[in-house]
């Protein structure tokens, strides 16, 4: 369980690190519920990054 949570946290940090320069200056809070899978987190965050980048362009 802790291993899975830490792995998901690493995925989230890595995605934000890679996208940081394209994101607007906003605070983002990510809350992961029990049973969440890494693949699903990556999919959701990809959509979130796209949405945030689009907001910066507007």
Tally of separate domains: 1
Q: Percentage of helical residues?
A: 55-70%
Number of helices: 2
Q: What's the story with the biggest beta sheet?
A: none
Strand residue percentage: under 5%
Oligomeric state of the chains?
Answer: single chain
Q: Give the overall average pLDDT.
A: 82
- Tell the overall outline: elongated
| Spatial separation of the terminal alpha carbons | 40 Å
Cα-atom Rg, whole angstroms?
Answer: 12 Å
Record field, number of beta strands: 0
Secondary structural class: mainly alpha
Contiguous runs where pLDDT drops below 50 for at least 5 residues: none
Order of helices and strands: HH
Question: What does this protein structure show overall?
Answer:
The protein has one domain (2-57). It contains 2 helices and no strands. It has helices at 2-19, 38-57.
Helices and strands in order:
Blueprint: H1 2-19, H2 38-57
Helix pairs in contact: 1-2
Notable traits:
58 residues, mainly alpha, 2 helices, 0% strand
Short description:
With 58 residues, the protein is mainly alpha-helical. It is built from two helices and no strands. The radius of gyration is 12 Å and the shape is elongated.
